[in-house]
Amino acid sequence: MDKLTRRRFLTMSGVTAAGALAVGATQVNWDDLLTAAERDPLPPDAGVLVVVTLYGGNDGLNTVVPAGDRAYQDARPALAYKPNEVLDLGEGLGLNPGMKGLKSLWDERRLAVVRGVGYPKPDRSHFRSMAIWQTASPQTQSRTGWVGRWLDTTGDDPLRAVSVEPVLPPLLAGEKTAGACLPASGLNLPKGQLGAAFRALGTPSPGEGAEQALAAKSVTDLHRAAEVLGAALRESKEQEDHDFDEERNKGASAGGGGGLAGQLDLIAGLVEVGVPTRVYSTSLGGFDTHADERGTQQRLLTELDVALSGFARRLATTDRGRQVVVLVYSEFGRRVRANGSQGTDHGTAGPLFVLGDQVRGGFHGEQPSLTDLDDGDLKATVDFRDVYGSMLERVLGADAGRVIGDHRGRLDAVIT
């Protein structure tokens, strides 16, 4: 299989070329965002959606595990988890053992598991299936992403949707407007005596003129940005550099990098200071587990778990944070039966996670049968556009019909 990095996927996608590049994708920095927070702060009760993409096709059956199902055990003799290995959720299902933080959120009713999510006539190509999920257009190819179309309907401010990745994902590309990218590069200010002297320049002085006061304020703002955003940005950048070569290893042929915890810490800081962004996009890659899946996937799910559970705990401490809803999806699940390399091949439906204080925790949607299959694959029981429609209406207060067209399905029960 040809190696496919996330950057290649994003830049080769027709959505990006015809959408984001056509309208001029914006790269922003900390100053743009903090200035926006000061001039037009996010209302404390405004809903914020954080979209987490798991690139590569995460194996849903080893994420939300039907460990007690004989058909599952028979299909994966060496790959299946035993009932005593998983974190019990009830109804014969359990979370992967690497997801202890999310299990705690489940117990607190702040994690929703939407089962059997997919779309009609599924496509097993990474390119096509990810394009379908990001454009919300299963039947026809679309020039625009679903969040990009929301941007088109609500104005031309790119700061309303921000990706904390270096390349704009297709979902943020509209026909007239594209979201913004915040580069993951740290804010490094001088330390020691020089640093103390530099910080002192931000101290206001009696009788100073307007220009001097503005200059002093800019120094203070710079230090504030470094305190709020700097550590998260550095962590994300360091992890991205580390993962550059790791992308060529097991599970990474469908693109995506690491550093999710740093990216989510950055988003939490932006929410807390009142940046008026309503949608954030971030991702974790490496889920294309054709071989030696169990160790690779559990490592990735543990990284996902630590990042998401820490993010949720932090958000719960502020009014703005409690309005955030996190949506976690992958382009497809995996085949029910393991392959000959102790891995799984491209499949169809899988579980989707929604978490936050505004979420009605528990199971949503019907668990697909492991015996009533479509050519060896799970049959979807929930259309992903049902979830998108509810996120648009219940979190963003938007008219979902203007974004996902005549699709009428909704999964409103997932949001309180």
List the helices and strands and how they pair.
Blueprint: H1 6-12, H2 14-23, E1 26-27, H3 30-39, E2 48-54, E3 64-65, H4 70-75, E4 87-90, E5 93-95, H5 100-107, E6 111-118, H6 126-135, H7 146-154, E7 161-163, E8 180-181, H8 192-200, H9 210-246, H10 260-272, E9 279-284, H11 293-315, E10 324-330, E11 350-355, E12 362-364, E13 382-383, H12 384-395, H13 401-404
Helix pairs in contact: 5-11, 9-10, 10-11
Question: Which characteristics define this entry?
Answer:
416 residues; alpha/beta; Alkaline Phosphatase, subunit A; ten-stranded mixed beta sheet; DUF1501; signal
Can I get a quick summary?
Keywords: Signal. The chain has 416 residues and is an alpha/beta fold. It contains 13 helices and 13 strands.
Tell me what the structure shows.
Residues 234-257 are annotated as: Disordered. Pfam families: DUF1501. By secondary structure, this protein is α/β, with parallel strands linked by helices. Helix content is 38%, strand content 13%. The protein has one domain: Alkaline Phosphatase, subunit A, CATH 3.40.720. It has helices spanning 6-12, 14-23, 30-39, 70-75, 100-107, 126-135, 146-154, 192-200, 210-246, 260-272, 293-315, 384-395, 401-404, and strands at residues 26-27, 48-54, 64-65, 87-90, 93-95, 111-118, 161-163, 180-181, 279-284, 324-330, 350-355, 362-364, 382-383. Strands 1, 2, 6, 7, 8, 9, 10, 11, 12 and 13 form a ten-stranded mixed beta sheet that branches. A hairpin with a 2-residue loop joins strand 4 and strand 5 (93-95). Helix 9 runs antiparallel to helix 10 (260-272). The longest helix has 37 residues, at 210-246. It is globular. Residues 1-24, 240-250 and 252-256 have low confidence and may be disordered.
